[in-house]
Structure formats: C-alpha cells, structure tokens
Design a protein that fits this description.
Blueprint lengths: L10 E2 L10 E8 L7 E2 L3 E7 L5 E4 L2 E4 L3 E6 L5 E4 L6 H6 E8 L4
Parallel strand pairs: 1-3
Antiparallel strand pairs: 2-9, 4-7, 4-9, 5-6, 5-8
C-alpha cells in the first residue's frame, strides 16, 4: 500500500460553492494528474476517462484505475489522483476529469 500520509501533507481545499448552491461542476482537460492529496467538507463525484494506470488515493485505499473511473467521495476524506503508470497517449494530449461538488446538508 505505501507509507501512511501525515496530516501535514494533506491540504484543505475549498471548492467555490456558496450557501445558495446545491452543487458545482468542473470539467477539465488534463495532461497529467498531480493535484496533491486534499480533502474538503463537500461530497465529490469524480468521473475520469482515458487514464488507465493513474493512481487513485481515497482514504487508506490506493489503487490503479482503468480507462474509466467514477468515484463518490464523502466529506473530509483525503483523496488524490496521480499520473503514476499511465502511458495513455490520449492522457498526454487530453484526458478529461469532471468533478461535481455537493454541499453537505446540515
């Protein structure tokens, strides 16, 4: 599995949701996955395509993904994706990642 993450290496992200927002969607084209391990108070539904071999970290789970990835991440769960062993040429030119953030209801 690898070394445990220290709390110092985990960033708190603040997605741009306002109290009046139900959700927010971000679609991105990527040439690599290098956003650091992070967490946030919102739920996140993340869809990634054309990225076989990318390493996914969610909580204490570390796995390589296939071409298609759909993951629901709960509030305050550390997570990240890294290029790792991905050799897909399409990733180098355009891999897509769509993240949908949902407000945690009170």
């Amino acid at each position: 599995m690898g070394q445990p993450m220290s709390s110092k290496s985990i960033l708190k992200e603040s997605p741009p949701l306002k109290k009046a927002d139900c959700f927010s969607v971000f679609a991105r084209s990527k040439t690599e996955f290098d956003f650091p391990v992070h967490y946030h108070e919102e739920y996140e539904l993340n869809f990634i395509e054309n990225a076989k071999g990318v390493k996914r970290i969610v909580g204490d789970s570390v796995e390589e993904i296939e071409d298609w990835e759909l993951v629901l991440i709960g509030p305050n769960i550390p997570h990240a994706w890294f290029t790792h062993k991905c050799k897909t040429e399409f990733l180098r030119s355009r891999s897509s990642s769509t993240a949908t953030f949902f407000m945690k209801s009170s």
